[in-house]
Amino acid sequence: MRVESFSFTVRTTKRFEVIDVTQQIQNWLSSIKAADGIALISVPHTTASLTVNESEAGLKTDIIDAATSLFNPQGPWKHNMIDDNAHAHLTSVFIGSSQCLPVEGGRLKLGTWQRVLLIEMDGPRTRTVEVKYLGL
Questions:
Q1: Is the peptide bond preceding residue 124 cis, with omega within 30 degrees of 0?
Q2: Predicted confidence (pLDDT) per residue in 77-130, tens digit
Q3: Separation between Cα atoms, residue 86 and residue 111, nearest integer Å
Q4: How many CB atoms lie under 10 A from the CB of residue 114?
Q5: Does residue 136 register a pLDDT over 90?
Q6: Which element (helix H / strand E) includes 92?
Q7: Are 70 and 22 spatial neighbours (Cβ–Cβ below 8 Å)?
Q8: pLDDT at 69
């Protein structure tokens, strides 16, 4: 079994933001000449999330709107007494901070419109995306 690791940073510019990170991951898989296997992708942050979905501007806005509707930043959250970012922690709990995706022929096996999206809920910040390839 072959195991390779990679990490890269993403600088977010807004408090709420959805950023497509698919190409950075794909470029790395190509550079290591990945074959078939899996890619474990994670963000080691408690106020950011990862999901797989379409990278369309309206949908990105909808994701942020839905998250802030469910977890209003001005809500009665007890954690807000410490950091004023409970909404971001709650969003991360529900969306998650990692994805496990198949790799076929050295490429992420995604549907036609699927992309790997980093969801920032407490920016601007510098976020790290960690990728581990397990393959042949």
A1: yes
A2: 999 999 999 999 999 999 999 999 999 999 999 999 999 999 999 999 999 999
A3: 33
A4: 16
A5: no
A6: helix 86-95
A7: no
A8: 96
Instruction: Give 14-49 pLDDT, tens digit per residue.
Output: 999 999 999 999 999 999 999 999 999 999 999 999
* CA distance readout (Å), 88 to 30, 101, 130: 33, 24, 20
Closest CA to 47 of 23, 20, 69, 67: 67
The two tokens of residue 127 are 């976020």
Cα separation, 36 vs 111, in Å, equals 17
Q: Which two tokens stand for residue 94?
A: 């529900």
Cβ atoms of 131 and 6 within 8 Å: the answer is: yes
Are the beta carbons of 112 and 13 closer than 8 angstroms? Answer: no
Which residue shows structure tokens 């469910």?
70
Instruction: State pTM to two decimals.
Output: 0.96
Per CATH, the architecture of 2-135 is what?
Sandwich (2.60)
